[in-house]
Design brief:
The chain is mainly α and about 110 residues long. It has helices spanning about 1-20, 30-55, 55-60, 60-80, 85-105, and strands at about 25, 80-85. It is about 80% helix and about 5% strand. The chain has a two-stranded antiparallel ribbon. The protein is globular.
């Protein structure tokens, strides 16, 4: 149940980011949930490897934000229902998703 709730919260955060940022297009709430699941899967697989490789940079915290933007762009490549214009919009989406998912999680 917690996993489903986390996916819905992350999907809502992606949907909010898609509505707030003009450089990001997310077609539906279902696509937002799918994008959240794909980014979470990429974070577990590819993100873990990249975090291990760059262990020294991780202490800054900025690398995690950049890594999330990269993973969003990879998800954009895989998913037809999400479009991110460039890396800067992916970086902005990563920030909006992080902030809005934190707010939504605290409300639940």
């Amino acid at each position: 149940m917690d996993l489903l709730l986390s996916a819905i919260v992350a999907g809502a955060a992606f949907f909010i980011g898609g509505k707030l940022l003009p450089g990001v297009e997310i077609r539906s709430f279902l696509q937002a949930i799918l994008a959240a699941v794909v980014v979470a899967f990429l974070d577990i697989t590819l993100g873990t490897v990249l975090k291990i490789v760059t262990l020294g940079i991780l202490s800054l915290g900025i690398f995690t934000w950049l890594l999330n933007a990269i993973l969003i762009q990879v998800a954009d490549w895989f998913l037809p229902g999400i479009r991110v214009k460039n890396f800067w919009w992916a970086l902005a989406l990563a920030a909006v998703v992080s902030i809005s998912s934190g707010i939504l999680s605290s409300l639940i």
